[in-house]
Amino acid sequence: MNPVLAVVAGQQGGVFSRRQALEAGYTPEQVQERLKAGRWHRVRHGQYAERVDLSELTPWERELWLHRQLVHAAMNSMKPGTSVVSHHSALILHGIPVWEVDLSEVQLTRTSGWRSGRSAGVMHHRGPLGAPDIGSRHGLAVTVIGRALVESAAAASFEAAVVSADAVLRSGELTDDELRRVLVPTEFWAGGPTIRAALAFADPLAESVGESRLRVLMHDQRLPAPVLQAGFKDAAGFVGRVDFYFPDHSTVVEFDGLLKYATGSSDVLIREKTREDRLRALGLEVVRLTWLDLAQPARTAAAIRRAFDRSRRTHVPA
Q1: How many other CB atoms are found less than 10 A from the CB of residue 170?
Q2: Are residues 30 and 39 in contact, defined by beta-carbon separation less than 8 angstroms?
Q3: The AbiEi antitoxin N-terminal domain covers which part of the protein (predicted)?
Q4: Across residues 249-257, what is the average pLDDT?
Q5: Which residues are CB-contacts of 114 (< 8 A; sequence separation ≥ 6)?
């Protein structure tokens, strides 16, 4: 890519239009040649980017990367000042995890007289946005983090809303005053009850998408509310923090995203085994769960309840 186009693309998330490529000195034939050779790829009609090797990323990271390119391409296709990135697209630009969303579709809120609806991979929303509702991320106008959260939660399941709400609270970017402000216009939204329920349930101590989803599973399966990130010590010192602790049942539940085991390092496995042995030596039942367990809520809840039963039998007074 020549230096002129490289500067333009660098300001637009790596995305540039056909017109911008021509203005940077490329001929129509050179544009087609680069597309045909696979050096550039078409992000959407008339919007391109240099092909990047994403093989080192996880499938989910690749999807987020491509969604960010779609957002830049969509905004680059719009007349300046007519659209704001919103809903889950804005959350992604804020670096907030999302769940159960269509990453092939960009979410924009129009600030001009454009009708709402889907068109060419973009969902156009209509809604009043005041100056406090609009911020900037990666050179794009986006709804601020609180507004983006309630927009996304209004159209989401309780589980998906909690995933993002936990992360927003964990980020520390949403003040109580700002939360109250963005909630005011949602009182009569169709998704208002989900927004309020998710925010009431949200907890910044949930440290990942998996932990947030497991919290919802426990709630839905009528398990008692656990303590999050409880720390334990033994005679040798600090053992560690656990994801979930049920003090009335002397049981801890750990969620393993498995990424920490990806290298296959024996040192990591040994440390985890030693840590678990020390927790058990404190008289605790330990239940380890993974992503696969989230897909089977009843069975997973039963496994936790069996740990409660084992603990109760172990701690029966003499």
Answers
A1: 19
A2: no
A3: 9-49
A4: 94
A5: 82, 124, 126
Positive or negative, the CA dihedral 54, 144, 96, 74 is negative
**The domain over range 210-314 is classified in CATH as 3.30.980:** no
**Domain spans, the chain:** 1-50, 53-204, 210-314
Query: pLDDT tens across 148-157, in order?
Result: 999 999 999 9
Residue linked to tokens 């995305």: 15
Query: Taking a C-beta distance cutoff of 8 angstroms, is the pair 87, 126 a contact?
Result: no
pLDDT in tens, 69-95: 999 999 999 999 899 999 999 999 999
In tens, the pLDDT along 127-156 reads 889 999 999 999 999 999 999 999 999 999
